[in-house]
Predict the 3D structure of the following.
Amino acid sequence: MKVTAPQPLVPLRHAANDRRGRPLRDLRISVTDRCNFRCPYCMPAEAFGPGHRFLGGEELLSFDEIEAIARAAVALGVEKIRLTGGEPLLRPGIEELVERIAGIPGVRDLALTTNGSRLAPRAAALARAGLRRVTVSLDALDDETFARMSGVGARVAPVLEGIAAARAAGLGPVKVNMVVRRGVNDHAIEAMARHFHGTGDVLRFIEYMDVGSCNRWNRDEVVSGEAIVRKVHAVLPLEPLDPAAPGEVARRYRYRDGGGEIGVITSVTRPFCGGCVRARLAADGTLYTCLFATDGHDLRRPLREGAGAEALLERLRTIWSGRDDRYSELRELLPVVSGKVEMSRVGG
């Protein structure tokens, strides 16, 4: 269904903080719920097998609808937009969407998160369309471990080629995300650090999180950010860095020898809810105000019922003003929460 993109709104005219004083600065937009990988912490094959029903064409937001929501979000104060999935490079014509969002006044940073398997032949076109940066998920460097982590027997080489192509296209420094799971790929921490040391890319280690309800998360499988830093420091000495920007989720460290930096995302052991300024838009138009939310807010219906730019902006402002999320801070105090939105719907 075609929706005419509204005219630009005046940025920040309706800026609002949530109930804990946090502004909206960052919007993640999932463009598809499909992925060619079946990573066990995100889309385990037993839950997303051949019989799983993905969104059909009319259920997905159109590019016009995504642009309309992005414009309203920017008017509320969003400066950073990240395109995610699923695997966003499975969405046909993604370069057109990049160009549209890059043209919205007020968008300071436009990035894309991908598993990297299809990035190499697309990197240059994405850069020409206006993409600024890419983040690539890579959980190991050896094919045996990576095949297990990808869930489909994927090989590392195409992902490394994608990272190199992104760097060559000016989409760097490339951020490389490694989800660390005890007994599965924690043996690969040092090898990953050595590989990306000195490349200019930024390796980020992510604690295994209880996102969604189908990854069978077990607290015992979490390798703490502190333990990860100790492992890297033992082979490549580190020192801490100050945050690059307010609300940054990764704790930063630089190599003492000048070989670059790493980041560590510690949602489990050292939550950062107090500085969270991020909302997530699922591919079906549902807006979530927390990665661990059980419920979202439908934006597709009002758009398709004819809501104009001002009405959409007011809807977003109302949603954000009522936000009170801090799941990670409360995780240890809560009973097991079922029905949380799956990571594949909101892109992490």
Q: What stands out?
A: The chain has eleven helices and twelve strands.
